[in-house]
Amino acid sequence: MDWQAIWLSVRLAASTTAILLAAGMPLAYWLAFSRRRWKFLVEAVVALPLVLPPTVLGFYILLAIGPRSPVGAVYARLTGGMLPFSFQGLLLASVLYSLPFTVQPIVSAFAAVDGKLLEASWCLGISRLATFRRVVAPLALPGIATGAILSFAHTMGEFGVVLMVGGNIAGVTRTVSISIYDQAQALDYAAAARTSIFLLAVSFTVLALTYALQRRFWWRFW
Amino acid sequence: MADELICACRKRRPSGFEVDANLRIELAESPVTVLFGPSGAGKTTLLRLLAGLEQADSGEIRFRDRVWYSSARNVRLPPQQRRAGFLFQDYALFPHLTVARNVGYAARPGRQRKLLEAFGLAKLAAEYPRAISGGQQQRVALARALAAEPALLLLDEPLSALDAATRGRVRHELRRMLIEGGVPSIVVTHDRVEAVALGDRMAVMVDGRIRQEGPVDEVFRHPADAQVAESVGMENVLPVQVVDRQGGLITVDVGGARLECLDTGVSPTWACIRAEDVSLARHTPEASSVRNRLPARVVSVLLEGPLARMELDCGFPLVAAITAQSAADMNLQTGDLIYAVVKATAVHLTA
């Protein structure tokens, strides 16, 4: 089995999930509670990666982070490196690609929290941030967990975006799905099968655990 | 520094409904003010404006020496800075926290324990809200609000989530808790009996405006206009003293006259009778099921369309409403001596 690729995918998925949780929660809070009229535009942008072919998304990201783009130029000046075909570039692409998978379950979970609970907390003199931490986040925990797990699993399995943005550099951008593709192309079906069954088992276990935990969580309070 | 709450603000809903409320409450004089009116009158909206959960379109709200809201001075204090405790209709307890943690949510350490004990919640401290009864949930909500040491309490239909049997018991308990809490309170209700049982003074709201404000029995007895009269619909609020209670009936003294009513188990201080529930007779009706037949003198007759509003003197003032047709048929004149007839079940007693 290509342990190097598996380890790389795990690192990529964990970093993506961490970034998405940090950035996704404020975004989800805004999407759940804002009453702006143009909110639907933001919702549409967030949902885009769900329907766009990964190659299209990858292509645009490649253009956007290339050395001749403003983003690429700034990055080159700051770090001396380049984003395309690097782990950092791959991470950026993964974050954008998995955005809806994190944000949408969290938005539904936030929206399901009774608004009166927030108002009750505010009237008790508790700030909005503390109210989020003490009321919204605990009640939305299953949704937050779902968002984190989906983005992790989705990143583990991503293929098209990786190929466009990251290429196939062992230890840097060759993720587990690329590795399986390589093995199948090389007609090494035994190796491809081993890696595939490993991924299948991990994915199933994680999802089964998630649903089991959610069920227990909801039984506790309602 | 004036010890009062002054609210004069407007808020327009997208539907076109407008709340335009002018209210002034002397806080020391009225520990509990009832905000009364039919559903859809804008009571809850006004309460939310006071709490800062919604912002008015224009106007001013002042509490003691602080400006809470002023469109002219561009002041909009958030709810956190107003220190107005809010009791939601369904109590809005935090479902993921135990009773103790709900009460302690915004309390200083010592205060949580004190309130749990004062509200009889010590035994329930470890329970989650879904496991306790509606009446207990209300006590938790009230204790939680008081724990934050509010300067004002706002209660939105605090009894409407309870079943009828519990409501009667909790009504009096709530009044006691509000008084003991020592925080001036505004209670929204559309229930006449609740208004009498809970309030010192009441403000009547109709169509988004405060139409009348005054002591509770005053407002019921002398509605400022026909719309207020229609919405309060309980013209007779009489101070009573218990004389006797037996066999499920209770006899009370009202200004020298006796009334028999159903015993609901409370020790009453007020009897409420709707004007429509008082009928009139020239002679004392014999062989009737009606328990109360009171000799009365007609003080005034006022025709209001198809109804005649009669003020009577039965040893206490009593307002009766009969059809104008009946008044004409009986040829009732000021000064006539007649009988006022009231069924025992039409007398509502409250503490």
Keywords for this structure?
heterodimer; A: 222 residues; mainly alpha; MetI-like fold; B: 351 residues; alpha+beta; Rossmann fold; OB fold (Dihydrolipoamide Acetyltransferase, E2P); five-stranded antiparallel beta sheet; 25% helix; 36% strand
What report would you give on this structure?
The complex is a heterodimer of chains A (222) and B (351). By secondary structure, chain A is mainly alpha-helical. Chain A is globular, with a radius of gyration of 20 Å. Chain A is built from 11 helices and no strands. The mean pLDDT of chain A is 89. In chain A, 37% of the residues are buried. Chain B has 351 residues and is α+β, with helices and mostly antiparallel strands. Chain B has 2 domains: 4-83 and 151-233, P-loop containing nucleotide triphosphate hydrolases (Rossmann fold, 3-Layer(aba) Sandwich), CATH 3.40.50.300; 238-350, Beta Barrel (OB fold (Dihydrolipoamide Acetyltransferase, E2P)), CATH 2.40.50.100. Chain B contains 10 helices and 22 strands. In chain B, the strands form 5 sheets. Chain B has a 6-stranded mixed beta sheet, with helices on both faces. A 5-stranded antiparallel beta sheet of chain B has the order 2-1-4-5-6, covered by helices on one side. In chain B, strand 18 and strand 19 (307-313) form a beta hairpin. In chain B, helix 4 runs antiparallel to helix 5 (134-147) and helix 5 (134-147) runs parallel beside helix 6 (164-181). Chain B is globular and about 65 Å long. Chains A and B meet through helix 6 and helix 7 of A and helix 2 and strand 7 of B.
